[in-house]
Amino acid sequence: MSSEDAPTSAQLAELADVVTELAHQLDTRSPELRDVVPLTGTEIAVIRQIHRHPRSTPSQIADATGLRRSNVSTAIRALEAGGLVVRDQLEGNARSVALVPTAQASTSVARINAYWTTLLREVPDDVLAEAVNATPVLAAIAEAIRRRSEGASGPG
Q: What is the pTM of this model?
């Protein structure tokens, strides 16, 4: 991208503002989800990783999310207490555990996904189609920011 095509600071700030507002609108603390276990941002990041990659270890989760290992451990304890994950001993390694989502976690994730789908179905189809096409780009932005943050903080 040439400097002529590079987004301005104002455009980048607007992008961040819109993404933040969208995240706020998709907040899972809706009354419609009152029986879903309430989670912190860190707990959401950890349960999402466990749900996507069952049998991940705490270290793998920390690496994938960019979270500090101590924060991951705290989140895992809270998720266990909420009945959303269980620890499973890794075969051949008594000190390591794999984390597995429970049926309650799977049900909660399905309900959250259904809630999000309901909200997004209210948006015109042509706008949704463009947004869906932008998903890989937004994921790449999130990954680039995560990697930058990871490099800035060093090993956690």
A: 0.73
